[in-house]
Specification:
It is a single chain. The chain is mostly helical. The chain has eleven helices and four strands. It folds into two domains: 81 residues, no CATH class; 145 residues, no CATH class. α4 runs antiparallel to α5 and α5 packs across α6. The structure holds zinc ion. The site of zinc ion has 8 residues, from loops.
C-alpha cells in the first residue's frame, strides 16, 4: 500500500511520521452532495528527463529514475492549469505545496518543510559545511532516524512500524535493495503483531492499551507482502532464500521489543503467503 502510494508521488518521507497520524479536519456534511467529476487533466508529459533533458524510451507514468542522470522523475498534475507533467523533485514539490494549500493540509506539509530546513542547518553545523551543501538524502535520513528514535522512546510502535517502512523505501530508492528487504520483512512482522501507540507522556496506559495484539492473518499485511515479493524478485532470490537473508534482523528486533508473535511462526506465515499468494 505504502509503495503504491509512493509511486503515485506520495511525500511520505517529507511529511514525517507524526503528520500521518493527525487527521485533517474535513467538512462533515450529512446531506447528500452532488457527485463531483474532476475535469480530465491535459496530458503534457513528454518522453524526456526534466533534469538532464535526455530522451527516454517511454513517457514516465509514475516516479522513476532517469537511466542517464539517475535523478528521480516525478509525475504530477498541477492544479493551477490542470496539466499532467513529468517534473524534477523541485517541480514536484512545488505542485505538492500548491495542492496542500488547496486541500487544507498545508499546515502539516509546511511543518515538514520547516523541519527539513532546520535539519539541514543542524547537519551543516555537524558536517562543517554550508546548509546548501548538505544532500537531500542526508536530510531525509536524519529525519527518518529521529522519527525512529522518537517513536521508540515513547513506545509508539505503530509510528515505529511506519518509520521502518519509510526507511525501507529510502534504502530501495538508493539501490540498497537487500537492506530494504530486511527492513520490509521486519516492518511486516511488526505489523502482524498489530502494534498500538502508547501514551507519549510515559503514563502507564497498559491497562487501557495493549502495545500489541497479534493478528497473524494476511488481510492487513497483504500490501506489505506484495512489496516484499517484488523486492525478492528484484534480488533474484527465492522466497526461502529471501526470508533467510532477512531473518536475523526480524528475529533480533522482535525479541528486543518483546513481540508476542514468535518470529518462527510469522516467518512460516509469510512463507506460505509469498510462496502461493492468494489470487
Ligand atoms: Zn536525466
Amino acid at each position: 500500500m505504502l509503495l503504491d502510494w509512493l509511486s503515485e508521488g506520495g511525500t511520505l518521507t517529507n511529511m514525517g511520521l507524526f503528520n500521518r497520524s493527525k487527521k485533517v479536519e474535513v467538512n462533515r456534511v450529512s446531506r447528500p452532495r452532488p457527485v463531483f467529476t474532476p475535469p480530465q487533466a491535459r496530458d503534457e508529459r513528454v518522453a524526456a528527463c526534466p533534469s538532464c533533458g535526455a530522451e527516454l524510451k517511454k513517457v514516465p507514468g509514475a516516479a522513476t529514475k532517469c537511466p542517464h542522470c539517475h535523478e528521480v522523475m516525478f509525475v504530477r498534475t498541477d492544479p493551477r492549469d490542470n496539466t499532467r507533467r513529468v517534473l524534477t523533485a523541485e517541480g514536484a514539490r512545488d505542485v505538492d505545496d500548491e495542492r496542500a494549500k488547496r486541500d487544507g493540509t498545508w499546515e502539516f506539509v509546511k511543518a515538514g518543510r520547516d523541519r527539513e530546513v532546520a535539519t539541514r542547518k543542524k547537519l551543516g553545523v555537524q558536517f562543517k559545511m554550508s546548509p546548501e551543501s548538505v544532500s537531500d538524502n542526508d536530510v531525509q535520513w536524519a529525519i527518518l532516524n529521529e522519527n525512529a528514535v522518537e517513536a521508540m522512546k515513547h513506545a509508539n510502535w505503530l509510528d515505529y512500524m511506519f518509520v521502518q517502512w519509510d526507511i525501507a523505501i529510502e534504502l530501495s530508492d538508493r539501490g540498497s535493495t537487500e537492506r530494504a528487504a530486511s527492513f520490509m520483512v521486519w516492518a511486516c512482522y511488526l505489523r502482524m503483531n498489530d502494534p498500538n501507540n502508547m501514551h507519549p507522556q510515559g503514563v502507564d496506559m497498559a491497562s487501557v492499551y495493549k502495545p500489541f495484539s497479534p493478528k497473524p492473518e494476511f488481510g492487513q499485511v497483504s500490501g506489505e507482502l506484495q512489496s516484499i515479493r517484488r523486492v525478492f524478485d528484484e534480488l533474484g532470490v527465492s522466497v526461502d532464500e529471501g526470508l533467510e537473508k532477512c531473518s536475523a534482523k526480524a528475529e533480533r528486533e522482535g525479541q528486543s521489543i518483546h513481540l508476542p508473535l514468535p518470529w518462527a511462526q510469522a516467518r512460516e506465515l509469510m512463507y506460505s503467503w509469498l510462496n502461493d499468494p492468494p489470487t
